[in-house]
Amino acid sequence: MPVGKCNTVNIAPDHQRGLDEHNCYPFMGGDFAVHVWTMWANGHTITPFICLSVQACPPASGHIRAVQCSSYNSRPFMGRLYEWEPFNEVPGDQHCELNCRAIGFRFYVRQSDRVIDGTPCGRNETSICVAGRCQSLGCDEYLGSGKMMDKCGVCGGDNTACKLVSGLFQQHSLNKVGYHKVVEIPEGATKINVTETVKSQNYLALRSRSGRSIINGNWAIDRPGKYEGVGTMFTYRRPNEITSTAGESFLADGPTNEILDVYVCTNQLVCTIEHSSVDFSVRYTIFHCVHRMSHEQAPENHCDSSTRPNSQEEPCNVQPCPAFWDIGEWSECSKKCGLGMQHRQVLCRHVYANRTLNVHASLCRHLEQPETSSTCQLKICSEWQINTEWSACSVPCGVGQRTREVQCVSNVGDVVSDDECNMKLRPSDKENCDMGPCAKSWFFTDWGNKCSAECGMGVQTRGVLCLTDHISSLPLEGCGHQRPAASQVCNNGPCENRIEWFTGPWSQCSAECGSGSQQRAVVCLMKSDEGFNVMPPYECSSLDKPPNQQSCHHKNCGAKWYHTDWSACSKTCEGGFRVREVRCLSDDTLSSEACEEQLKPREREDCNPGPCVPHIDENCRDKYFNCNVVVQARLCVYDYYKTTCCASCTRVHTKQKNLEPLHGLEE
């Protein structure tokens, strides 16, 4: 880790102005005390910079994340107190959030969306959080420069200072058990990666040219981990032997300072327990040169080397070392939230010649075998939350749909992906709604302009449909059985006495939509004013016979105007009005805007323009000259005045009765 003094921190020259040395805050970041410098320009904070002091942290110093999490120990969470520890198994974009796990429990909580500046983050040992973002110290020792060592070990290089050497070892049959050489890695190599493409019972081994075993040497298998040798650090990986199908690998950044040989150990039994019977140590007799009188140790050149006794050795600790259970790391929890399962590898091993070997499980029977699986819970599962009431139904009548908003919310109230909630328990956000039966009316087009016969009697047609009626103020009822006629008789005038082919109407199309066919009758007739006479077909042989079959297609008719019957007139006399509903419909009876506006039928018209004439009764007369005063005084409600001023009272009553339907429509 590059370090420097706080007052000589590496800062780009154009940023060195305005450095405030009073804003250097120490935080315990692991092996070094981390200090964050805050840059000021015109009174505004800009990008922070970092320097690392060379003073080692005090032994009792806690990790900065642990200190921040423990500050919540005295704050109740969901009605009780917990002791908190850092939880780091979160996605990379959350490394600068303060996520803490309750000690002794299997859930974690995001206590703050930002940790204190200077808190370490990510897998890079030089990465720290600054203003909520995880930033790394470049290989040029500048924070945020982004410069990295290339594959050749050059800071900010472009990988052109070296060449890539790669290959694939594919020897399928290795008859002899033991170590088999695979490849030689030259001195100065960088970015070393040796990986088994698939899982096998073999083990990778690494030894230097000088004879030093680095990984899996001397017939013993090492645990996965980091191993130092030939000037670099090797990372040995062996995926979980129970749950993983990946092969072994070892990686190193380099450069190496010695030639390396890569081997494959082809038999697990030989590579792990062979020679285990010679499990003992050796002790030696040590001789020193001492003064005869004081017996104090003196330099060896003061004694006669020819009389020095030979060194002796004898075995010691000949009893075999007891086997023990070697416990691997727990696998990831099978569920992201709630109760899940995790597994680990447990092997019986014992120590031989300062190396650990796999042995049969029966040798560990004197010990209780640790559990290989356990329940786990990373955090409390999120829950479904209904945010809105049901919406209004999508239709005014009949069966429609209504909706509401349903979201997955975490235990701290944040909206998260639906995958984090139990989909089986998700409340419905859509359902059907029944608004009751819809009123309906007959809709029909105007009569067609063409008659089926060029002369004489023919047939004229129009379109008729039963549709929902949107005019609720008129007394319209269901369509019922009184369907308006879809055809009527037409006459284009008398025909001359002549022989012609005559055709009947086309049958219905054989297909409801798309292409189909239809037929009609074709006969030879003699047409006259008296009527028609059927003639033999040869009488019309001189004429072109019309086809009796043709193709048809229902969906190319285009949009047309449809309308209902007229409503009742608003008044019985002295001029009223009546209305009807008009719609433009496409071939599939859906609302359309393709109809010609100038051809739209009227939706309202006047009716009953005649005057209101009361029935004249010769016996109904005014017997007094001042009956107009009786009407003005509204005395016609009394039987005496109805008889005495019969004519005047009858006129007023008739006028009021004619005005009542008009008031009803206006309301």
From TrEMBL:
InterPro entries recorded = ADAMTS/ADAMTS-like, ADAMTS_ADAMTS-like, ADAMTS_CR_3, ADAMTS_spacer1, PLAC, TSP1_rpt, TSP1_rpt_sf
List, alphabetically, the SUPFAM superfamilies matched: TSP-1 type 1 repeat (SSF82895)
Primary location recorded for the protein, binned into one broad class: secreted
Q: Where does it sit, as one GO cellular component term?
A: extracellular matrix
The family database entries (Gene3D superfamilies) matched by this protein are listed as: 2.60.120.830, Thrombospondin type-1 (TSP1) repeat
The leader peptide range reads none
GO MF terms, alphabetically ordered: metalloendopeptidase activity
Q: Which domain of life is it from?
A: Eukaryota
Work out whether the entry's keyword set contains Repeat.
yes
PLAC domain: which residues? 616-653
Q: What keywords sit in the KW lines?
A: Disulfide bond, Repeat, Secreted, Signal
Compartments where located? Secreted
Which residue spans traverse the membrane?
none
Q: Per UniProt, what is one Pfam family of this protein?
A: ADAMTS_spacer1
Which Gene Ontology biological process is one annotated for this entry? proteolysis
Q: What is this protein called?
A: PLAC domain-containing protein
Q: What is the gene called? A: THSD4
